[in-house]
Amino acid sequence: MKTILVMTDFSRAAKNAAQTALNIAEQFGAELLLLHSYHLPQIILAEPLKMDYKEIEEKAAVSLEKEKERLLKLMKTRQGYVRIHTINTIAPISEILYDIQQGEKLMLAVMGRHKRHKSNFLFANHIHIAMRNSDCPLLILSSSEFLPDSCRINFASDLNEKDIALLESIDKIRKAFKASLSISYVMESPGLIADFNEEGRIASFQGVLRRDKFSDIPFHLLKSPSIAHEIDRMFPPSKDNLLLLVNRTHGLLHEIFHSSHCYAIIKKHRGAILVLPEHWKPACRPLTGAGASEQV
Q1: For 39, which DSSP code?
Q2: CA distances, 155 to each of 22, 160, 184 (Å)
Q3: pLDDT tens readout for residues 53-76
Q4: Within this chain, do residues 201 and 231 fall inside the same structural domain, yes or no?
């Protein structure tokens, strides 16, 4: 059985993420796994903070059970049924994600984001931890409603060769959600190290899109000093827009001399974002009738 992981801190955005995950689980015949992991402070003080972690864990367990009951009540208004499991722990989210992925076949991880997102502030920091440690797609949602069915997907690509290899899988996402798909690339001003291969990558990607299989996908070549600003100008965040990114594993030198394409957009974009691992392949597609989910 495929599982959708929902990471929650019981905020409005996290509850919206859980409801969206429930809708997707019903459509794909998957189970839900609700996870709450308390983020232990990493600050070293002369005198450690006196905190009752047992009490924190117990309060979180009560909140987690209430969230499960809320989702079960939502299901009663519809015909489908989704099994919901819970995990409540005080442990680093990276370790928990690793352990879960060893025992579960995760098809998707879902999490909320706070309205005033900063890359290193409380739960928002978990977005980047989850990106680094997830083997499955990661859906990041705000407190605004997002409807997966018939949404408009924009693949914000940096035209890497591996993005071309992912087009087949991305096209299956489009079909699964009955969505439209477009691809955009933002030509940025050169950083400390110029991108001498940019024109070649653009020509190669356009050549792939001209093939019959992908010829109907619109391609937008944009120019701006800011990736996030240009993406939001062309594809403004809304409940029926889904921004699709690829999280690529870069070496240390790349992180020092270049800004991360994926991180730069996530930091500013306020709409729904689906982040794909660069080696990802889809596992299943929506139910057809009353049977189990079919393998792609």
Answers
A1: -
A2: 24, 12, 6
A3: 788 888 889 999 999 999 999 887
A4: yes
Tell me the three state secondary structure of residue 270: coil
Q: Are 98 and 41 in the same domain?
A: yes
- What is the CB neighbour count within 10 angstroms for residue 46? 4
Residue 230 to residue 143: CA distance in whole angstroms: 23
Residues 75, 40 share a domain: yes
Looking at the structure, tell me whether residues 7 and 119 fall in a common domain.
yes
296 belongs to a structural domain = no
Report the C-alpha gap between 272 and 161 in whole angstroms. 25
User: CA 165, CA 280: separation in Å to the nearest integer?
Assistant: 10
Q: How many CA atoms lie within 13 A of 24 on its CB side?
A: 28
Tokens linked to 69: 């009951």
Domain that holds residue 53: 3-141
Residue 113 lies in a domain: yes
Global confidence as pTM: 0.85
Q: Do 132 and 177 lie in a common domain?
A: no
What does 133-186 look like in DSSP terms, one character per residue?
Answer: H-SS-EEEE-SS----TT-EEEEE----HHHHHHHHHHHHHHHHTT-EEEEEEE
User: Residue 160 falls within a domain, yes or no?
Assistant: yes
Distance CA 28, CA 22 (A): 10
92 vs 61: CA distance, rounded Å: 17
Number of domains in the chain: 2
pLDDT at 108 over 90: yes
Cα radius of gyration (the chain): 20
Q: Comparing 40-49, 66-75, 103-112, 121-130, which segment has the lowest mean pLDDT?
A: 40-49
> Is the residue at 133 inside a domain?
yes
Final residue belonging to a domain, choices 141, 168, 201: 141
SS3 62: helix
Are residues 32 and 64 in contact, defined by beta-carbon separation less than 8 angstroms?
Answer: no
